[in-house]
Design brief:
The chain is of the alpha+beta class. The protein has 3 helices and 9 strands; from the N terminus they run αββββββββαβα.
Length: 159
């Protein structure tokens, strides 16, 4: 995730690191939901600008943007990355809160389960890349169902 966050580009067009991409519009969400899979198997889901959940190739949660804060996995825990600026320097403090982690995991599970329901009922409002990769919808649903049965946090934020 970028240090300086600016409004995101068009992910379906510009997020070429995701070799498989999907965008779905839900009337309950102000922005489209984007999901993408990288060539190495890592994948991400963007619910508009916030929240964003990123998973490694083992489908473990590795990075999160939640309520305008960035979190990174470290030793199986989600740590808040708090930037402290002083004298032209930026120091990143890593802060752990079990309560915040539980809130993020619960929100992730809830949103992903709702996305599975949306994917199964709204194929006509779903745009895929590559265009002929309609299997990506069922592949993503399967990944999400697997993850939601037990969300695991990665040992490292790196993919």
């Amino acid at each position: 995730m970028a240090i300086n966050r600016e409004p995101r580009e068009n992910l379906m067009r510009d997020a070429t690191a995701y070799t498989r991409r999907l965008s779905i519009q839900n009337s309950a969400e102000p922005e489209p939901i984007f999901a993408g899979m990288r060539q190495h198997g890592g994948w991400s889901v963007y619910f508009g600008e916030d929240p964003v959940f990123q998973f490694n190739a083992q489908s473990q949660l590795r990075r999160v943007h939640f309520q305008n804060q960035n979190y990174a996995a470290d030793a199986g825990k989600l740590l808040l990355l708090h930037r402290e600026r002083s004298g032209g320097h930026v120091e990143i403090q890593r802060i752990y809160s079990a309560e915040t982690e539980r809130c993020i995991v619960d929100d992730c599970r809830s949103r992903l389960n709702a996305l599975v329901e949306l994917l199964s009922s709204s194929a006509d409002t779903c745009v895929c890349f590559p265009e002929d990769d309609r299997a990506w919808v069922s592949d993503l649903s399967g990944l999400i169902q697997l993850v939601c049965s037990k969300i695991q946090i990665a040992d490292t934020a790196n993919a």
